[in-house]
Design goal:
With about 400 residues, this protein is an alpha/beta fold. The protein has three domains: about 55 residues; about 180 residues, Rossmann fold, CATH 3.40.50.150; about 120 residues. About 30% of the residues lie in helices and about 25% in strands. A nine-stranded mixed β-sheet has the order 3-2-1-4-7-9-8-10-11, sandwiched between helices. Helix 1 crosses helix 2. The chain is flat. It starts with 5 loop residues before the first helix and ends with a strand.
Length: about 400
């Protein structure tokens, strides 16, 4: 069909809502999918049934991101790029002093929902499907009255009278992922918008090179559940520090501070593996000082100490063995300790983890973490266990 939004109108109509309700009442499984689709095709327009089935599958995936996913509508690419509710709320906190702003490249409204709590938001997206879905999803999350949606190229949009904006540039086109630091609109366009006076936040990939941020901007690296999810660039009007590590869902943050150099020493009784947001933000030394720990190598982001310290910014492991890298010795250490299952982590090591797993041939009942890294620039291995077990 010529109108790319036809299916939205069809699903929002009474018959489409009835179809979605039937799918919700009998969730799709591998065992019932063909039978269910066949039955639905007898009652509803055949061209609409696969669309509704696709939405049911997307809603199931979206429950990990949205509380009201079963009321919302998606496209697969937009759902993949959409912020989770926790990420969106973290973004929205920066705009606490603004009662009006713009959400540029709003997609299906992942950030819009949080941004529209307590302020009016102009939501703009070039894709007519996404623009429609953003407004529908805002209504589904009870913030529709605060939102105005427009289908437009954000580069042609007038932001007169709108003091702040959040932009999530497209990082894919035609199924192809842009190079890290690239997107539509470009970072250069975003930086120019901020230079003209707009208080701006830019969502970017977690691998964004720090040197791309202009002077006076903040780069925030955000992890959720221990997985690095994004970087966000905040213009000088919203920035508070040059760099920040933020952990979700707790909201804990770590920022660099002036302090003495962190000592480099041999591994102690415990190893601290910093959260990836800490590593990317360059706040490893700040974490070390806060824990009274040291580094085991000048270039590697592992910390060590002789106390069982606990921190939200990293995982603490008990060091059972610390030796120069040697596969035969590693196998012996693990077998003597009754280890049968190992999680191998490497940082600064060139070894093949899959090959090592095959060659260990362990049969014990205990579990351990094997860390392959460098200590004082030498290949090293540490056999570790969880001190909480």
């Amino acid at each position: 069909m010529d109108d790319p939004t036809w299916w939205i109108d069809a699903l929002m109509a009474p018959g489409g809502q009835e179809l979605m309700a039937e799918l919700a009442a009998e969730p799709l499984t591998a065992a019932n999918e063909i039978r269910l689709i066949t039955r639905l095709r007898e009652k509803y327009p055949p061209e609409l049934v696969p669309v509704a089935v696709g939405q049911a599958k997307l809603r199931a995936r979206a429950r990990a991101k949205f509380t009201y996913a079963d009321r919302m509508y998606f496209t697969a690419p937009a759902l993949e790029q959409a912020s989770t509710e926790r990420m969106a709320r973290n973004h929205a906190r920066r705009y606490a002093g603004f009662d009006r702003m713009a959400d540029l490249c709003s997609g299906i409204g992942g950030d819009l929902i949080a941004l529209a709590e307590g302020r009016s938001v102009l939501a703009a997206d070039l894709d007519p499907v996404h623009s429609r879905l953003a407004c529908i999803n805002a209504e589904a999350n009870a913030v529709g009255a605060a939102v105005e949606c427009v289908c437009a190229d954000v580069r042609d949009l007038s932001l007169d009278g709108i003091p702040a904006a959040f932009v999530d540039p497209a990082r894919r086109a035609g199924g192809r992922r842009f190079q890290t630091g690239s997107g539509e609109p470009s970072l250069e366009w975003c930086f120019d918008l901020a230079a003209r006076g707009t208080a701006l936040g830019i969502k970017a990939a977690p691998g964004l090179p720090l040197e791309l941020a202009p002077k006076g901007w903040e780069v925030e690296f955000v992890s959720e559940g221990g997985e690095l999810k994004e970087s966000v660039l905040w213009s000088p009007a919203l920035a508070t520090v040059p760099r920040r590590a933020t952990l979700l869902p707790s909201g804990d943050t770590l920022v660099p501070k002036e302090g003495p150099a962190v000592e480099v020493r041999m591994p102690g009784e415990y190893l601290i593996d910093p959260d990836p947001a800490v590593t990317r933000s360059g706040t490893v030394e700040e974490l070390a000082r806060s824990l009274d720990c040291w580094k085991i190598d000048e270039q590697i982001a592992f910390l060590s100490g002789d106390q069982d310290v606990r921190t939200p910014f990293g995982r603490t492991l008990r060091v059972e063995a610390s030796l120069p890298w040697n596969l035969k010795q590693l196998r012996q250490v693990l077998r003597e300790a009754g280890i049968g299952v190992v999680d191998i982590r490497k940082r600064g090591s060139a070894v093949d983890v899959d090959e090592i797993q095959r060659k260990l041939k362990l049969t014990g009942a205990r579990a351990a973490t094997v860390v392959l890294t460098r200590v004082s620039d030498r290949p090293w291995m540490l056999a570790c266990t969880d001190p909480r077990r």
